[in-house]
UniProtKB/TrEMBL annotation:
Keyword Zinc: yes
Ranges for domain MYND-type: 1152-1190
The protein, known as: MYND-type domain-containing protein
Transmembrane segments: none
Gene Ontology CC entries for this record: nucleus
One Pfam entry name: DUF4470
Any one GO MF annotation of this record: DNA-binding transcription factor activity, RNA polymerase II-specific
InterPro entries reported in the protein's UniProt record: DUF4470, TF_DEAF-1, Znf_MYND
Organism of this sequence: Pisolithus tinctorius Marx 270
Entry keywords, A to Z: Metal-binding, Zinc, Zinc-finger
Amino acid sequence: MSHVLYWPGRIYFYPLGNTSAVCLTEELPPERKADVLLLGCGDPRHILYTVYADTSTSSVEPRKLDITCCDYEAAVLARNTLLFTLLADDGAEDRLSTIWNIFYHMMLDENSLSLLIEQCRKLVPLAESLESWRQGPYAHIVTMCNSDTLSEIGRFWKLWLGTSNFNAKQAKRFKGNFQDGIKNVRKPHEDGLVMTSMRSAGPLAPLTLFAVTEQFKRFWTTGVTDDGSPDVKPANNPNPTFAFSLFGNEFAVHYGTDPISGFHLAEALASSGLELSTKSPSVIHKIVQTARQQFSTWCKAVIRRVQNTSVSSASLVVRMYAGEALAFCQALHFVNRPSMAHTPIFIAPWKRSVVQLDDASYSPSTPSPAPTSFNVIETSNLLDHLGLQNLLTVTTPLLSNSPSSTIYTEALLPAGDSPAQGILDHLCGDLSTISLLLGVIPSAYISCFTTRSNTSETMMQSIANSSANQYHERLAWKHINFGHLSDSLHEGELSFAPHQLAGELFDIYLKMFSDEDLRKRMAILSLGKSQLMQKIRFSGIIHYTRRSFALLLAHIRTRVRYDWNKVINDLEVLILQDHTLLTGSNFYQEMVCQLHLAGFWLPWLSPAEVRELRSQEDPPIFRSWSTVPEVVTVVLVVPRHAIAKVQSDLSNAGTPILQCEIRADSKHNAFACISASFGKLEVSGEGENKVAVVVEDRTGISGTSPLIVSFPVLSTTLIHTSGGTVGLAVRSTLGPAAALAQKLGLEMCLFKALLTDERYAHVLIRAPTASEGTINSEFPLVPPKLDTMTRGHPIHVEMDESNTHIQSLTAHIDVVDAAGQASLSSGCTVTVEQLSLNKAKLCVGQYQHIISFPLPIDATNAKLRIARKSKYVEVVAPMTLTLNVKGESNVAGNFRTTFDYGVPTLWSMHRMNLDRCPSFKPSRSHKAFDWLGPHVGLMFSQRERIARNRNTFPGSTTPDTMMNLKDSLHTLLISATGLQGPIHTEFALWNPVENASYATILVTDVRLDIGSHTVVADSWIIPGSNDIQDKLKREITQVLSIKTDAHESEAWRHLLPLLIERCRTWKHKSSCEYLVHDSIPLYPGAGSDPKKVPWCSCGMGIGTKVLRERYGSVSAKYATRAAISPLFAVSYMEKVGMQMDDPVGPPALTGCAACGKGGAPLSACSRCRKVKYCSKDCQVKDWKTHKTSCVST
């Protein structure tokens, strides 16, 4: 395993999700089939909501969804499968209320329990074998990835069914233990606030503070959700689906579990008009009713998909896999290797079975195989538990070759010095550099905005005075070479200066293993008490082993072309010379071992060198071996009594980390990459023919069997230490595990034995498994290197002096075109022109070549190296991507689009089904909590807010176009809701220089984008050409003009097509102007020219019934639907938000009363002095509205 091994003392059961549902297809064009991988899938809320909210261009055939669910906890998958089978049965819609009870209530009424038991009776026989499942009635919706998964799921169904056969004494004990478990969770929370479910209300989070706390306490008191219904049936029966888990039959439901967390609570409260301090019980009922209604609506969408379909016609397929996420991803890498009898990977920590996927689904010869690459990979918050680098290393190779393909990561646990910037701490390096090496990058990092709101987290931090234990951050990672994946001509390979690459990898190494840094530990101990306790609490959360690092290097090797033997040698020198990591030298042997397994070569580790060393030392441990390979496996059998004496201490110590150690004289070698299980070791054979099988004890730590651990090790290590001992120890950390030293001593050793003592220690060629199948330790578990043929133009990466940030990117272009060579030889001028953020055009006379850089660059300041005789040009361009965001005049490149086989694809703007977004109307009550103003205002970073409030741009004369654009969006959204005056729903984007509008925007509704915790204006955009505008004046007599300068006009030109594309439900025509011009937008650089419409005409006039009824036929004929929402600042790039008592009001209050724009000096009305305008024109336009309230002072 690439992750460290935690002692399995306390395993929490997560039957329900702790974040609200998201639409898994929100980045995919509606034409694309969705192959989705859910890692740590949890409950099926994301699937249910996706089926409901998904966008399709066909009203008859919905998008095909093929969803693979992986979860370590088979009980979760058993619950999920139960739910889907209930929905697939006839009459499911009539039973949705009962199905809610079964899935979300810990205590059940008789009717709900009866349905649960009845369903289990149907399911248990189907789980006997994969064949019986395939022949059953549910195979068209739920597929099992292997027999082990079906067996584990079936085991839980049997346990649930078995509770119906309890006698009175058994039933009483079962109920008593269950209720005691609930009571133990409830007790610590009886007097405090429980804020976890607040984030599910998005921008209305503060309104739910008391309601979600009370709902949580009621749920953990009664075991049911209270929606205020008077005819609630008594619920006196424990729900078996909450009673059993990997922790056995002991109650293990996580203490944060709350049924409403997975739903969108904002829908219940957006128009409620409630006050911020309300403690009304009606709020509890509202949010529970909303959650139940959403569940019902989503389930009905699933029912329509799955009923009356077959395996061949199914548009929704859900595949179940029970096992650890990293192991499953690695197993998928091997699917297309038919020579492999099975994947050489253990299913999960504390398991000895290897992953064996079902041939009927995963064999290459299968007619319709299960997907092994995915355009959506959702990782939940696994980075908190497995580490971001571990996750990205195994998921990036599984990401399909499409510009819309996305990996989602979520973090809940805080990291680093700032919760909002915790993601940077998880990266173990500079964001640009790490992204370049991995090949994926957070989309918002390039665009400098996100359409997903983090308002709830900002508010929760403020309420908790920055002491909140969680901070939810969701990132979308995309291929770094966006838009050029399928065109090999644009694929460039990376190269580095050898010392810079080795230095960068060493820097990553130091950060991955910073827990071994003594200086860091001392710095933690010097903190104040509150900070100290929090740092110590999280100091024991360690994710990486030397295997993690080796697999990361193996992945980087597929992207970077260089002499990797030299890189590894240079890196080895740096590691050997390092004195930063206190125990770094102890892990050196494991480091080399894992590098060897990952396919890297070290000159002193070869078969010849091993033979030579063996002949010199003649170690007893290998005397019966004819041939000794470079890597072998050590197996240690730890007697149960050695564990029993400290077992309770281990289980109470949080997450103690186990590692193996080999000691001899002064030599001390540690190994963190170990496998373990409880059971009996059966050994046969001698020498290199010795093999071992583990007969696993399913009772685990509750049983009496010995603990069997194994780990790979260099044979040279054993030759040098053959007279020493091998032991199992607890890793020394600052956390609770440190207290174990009082019992175990400073070495923290649980047990040790001589390496030659075959009662406890064995040396094998292969690691033992739970069957006769074995794992070859020497098998490289990584993809092969790139072939030696150069593709496209190579990109050389130059680091800065500190070797921590990328300074420049150099593209090498061989001029192979005859005319180009002639121009180059004849001395023609060579120029380079910036085309977009990461594209430049090289010109040599009439010869042109488009250069695609992997990261944004500044082509205007690029240096040229021209080799006229050798016929090549090198463009050395400064890399411009940075976390230090500043105001810029040209931001058009931030709105990236590309084509995916002719279909427009967006970079950093999620898609949505507007008809699935609930509409709302803000309350007019002065006492009502004003959530909308602060929410829309929070799209401004603190830097932008300060600039707006000062009406200047401090230290710069450059206009901040992104801020101005947000200003315009703010004006539109606030005006459309009438939050600060009369409602305006007709707008014109207006260029004062041309004195003409270039687009008309009609807002027909304001909706909640509940999946992204924000709002969206359901809008229609009409071109600003004179002929259309002349006709439009007959229907629309008054518009609110939003003034934009030349830079902002160009930004709108790039933005408007995206706002249209993101909510598209129609297909682009074969004659689409985008394809004809090979450009999105059309006519880039034309700014506010109304004659050059930036969006295509494919969607014009589609679905415009609402406009025809409200305005007339002209509006309906020329309008195209668009989804306009705030563009939020990126929290890890800029400081976002304000304290709850911040005196600064909503930004619009400082803007022009007519157009809302800020950022420029304003003039007050000469009569009342209460309102201000940016120009005389705006004052004249607003007079009709303002004169009714203008009172002379």
